[in-house]
Amino acid sequence: MNLERRYAAIFQQLQAAKDFDLESLETSRSLFDLTAGRPIPRQFEVWTCLAGLPLPDPLTAQLEAVAAELFSLLPPGTRFYAVKPQLYHWELFIIKRPAESLDDRQLREAGERLARVLRGTPPIAVRYRGVLVTPDGTAIVRGFGEFDRLREQLRTAIPFASPHQSQLGHISLGRILDPMGETAFKQLQDFVTDALDRDYGTFHVTQAHYVHERRWYMEACETIRTLPFAGPH
Question: Name one GO molecular function term (predicted).
Fold first, then answer.
């Protein structure tokens, strides 16, 4: 299944709905402490390979603007979480998710194997076009590029990595945490439809980062090592 079809499936789910349902939103709500005045990402242990953190300034500005436009459609009182623009990133390959277990040796070895694969890989161009909102309320910008084969190479090189990998090239803008009501939800659907062909720019990925994330959406994280792609850049 190619990227267009993957994104089209999410678009069709959005268009078929009349609002977010509470069962789907619970997936997003579980990622946050909602007892404070604003949603606070919970602490989780994730090891992952990503690009960005931050993205180039022109792309960041474009994504920050579309995020503000999208979240402005929410009725007053609707809870949402907006990713901090300096923390926007594209997740390439996940080594360990919160519920999974790897020992220190495996985590170190993953960094070595990531470096070995990426230094033999030419830089990647990821073009960002259109926005989507998933059934659990996640707002994303659609990314298109030739990275499926790289993910397959990483899966072969690091067989002990998480079996649950993204099939997309998106950047997350944030999460809507409450139903909107049918009228506002229809406005959201129309906004997504109108924005499908908007071009936000291209991210030329010349390096990735091996990151230990301690709080969701990179609000607490440590870069273990920077991983250059094949040069020159």
Answer: ligase activity
**Considering the domain boundaries, does residue 75 fall inside one?**
yes
pLDDT tens-digit map of 1-11: 589 999 999 99
Indicate the SS3 state at residue 2: coil
What's the domain count of the chain? 1
Structural domain span for residue 46: 3-225
Share above pLDDT 70 across residues of the chain, in percent, rounded to a whole number: 99
- Taking only the tens place, the pLDDT of each residue in 32-50 is 999 988 999 999 999 999 9
Secondary structure class of 148 (helix, strand, coil): helix
CATH number of the domain to which 212 belongs: 3.90.1140.10
Structure tokens at 88: 């926007």
- Identify residue 177 by its one-letter amino acid code: L
Q: Please tell me whether the overall predicted TM-score, pTM, comes out greater than 0.85 for this model.
A: yes
Mean pLDDT value of segment 148-167: 97
Query: Is the bond preceding residue 232 a cis peptide, omega within 30 degrees?
Result: yes
The answer to the question of residue 98 being in a domain is yes
Report CA torsion sign: 108, 111, 116, 119.
Answer: negative
* Residue 85 DSSP label: G
Q: What is the pLDDT of residue 36?
A: 82
**230 found inside a domain:** no
Cβ neighbours of 13 (radius 10 Å) = 14
